[in-house]
Amino acid sequence: xxxxxxxxxxxxxxxxxxxxxxxxxxxxxxxxxxxxxxxxxxxxxxxxxxxxxxxxxxxxxxxxxxxxxxxxxxxxxxxxxxxxxxxxxxxxxxxxxxxxxxxxxxxxxxxxxxxxxxxxxxxxxxxxxxxxxxxxxxxxxxxxxxxxxxxxxxxxxxxxxxxxxxxxxxxxxxxxxxxxxxxxxxxxxxxxxxxxxxxxxxxxxxxxxxxxxxxxxxxxxxxxxxxxxxxxxxxxxxxxxxxxxxxxxxxxxxxxxxxxxxxxxxxxxxxxxxxxxxxxxxxxxxxxxxxxxxxxxxxxxxxxxxxxxxxxxxxxxxxxxxxx
Length: 324
Known about the structure:
- It is a single chain.
- The protein is an alpha+beta fold.
- It contains 14 helices and seven strands.
């Protein structure tokens, strides 16, 4: 069996476990929980459970939205990422002694609020948690642990990065030589499709749809939820309208003019293009200094995990994934 076939078999085995878990009725949940309580890996003196692995690979209370159609997550790769994250968190806790508990708690509450809104009702949210063996307190603890690890790792990595003005100027020149923009935008989009030469009746119908969406935003409905539910962009149901990072030069002029001055979370006015009527929300904008900082952070992360793995005691314990 070659490496590719083995990886497909591994992913398939774990997928079968996952699908059988979410299909269990509430009465069968105790046996499902015992199945998912196996230890997937031991990283020094900490463990990664099978439940953690499956959630990381397939998502938690929105697992169906986390996997692109026609794809299967690489579970072994996911486990390696979890191992790296755990190694960095262990080391980072030796450096970062203070954690902003209030900020982490607020972040956790924000995640829960967002996921409740996507599932529609408290009952649906509670049921989704129960299907995965959680109640609300245990889910909050799970999220808190993740956010705390993210914080200490990012803080420890940031200490390792030093950037001066000359570094930024050199990086900007490098971007220009590659034909890349010095500014990048991360946007969410809601699209109401409308042909360029649409008849007046279709234009009026599309405009009314967009006005209704704008009214819901004004009333406080999350942009991401509306993108999933009402955008004509098919990927929006999976991404909440998130378009990822886009170079400034790759934005059509009407779109760039609409988004360039937006603050974080602010929405644009409707923008008409040959695809239809768009509405954008600013997730984040980054400059050359921020791009360089993130590049150096990622380089530092790779080097750090390589060094930590040399000294670590790591054992993969799931039979489906073999041993290490």
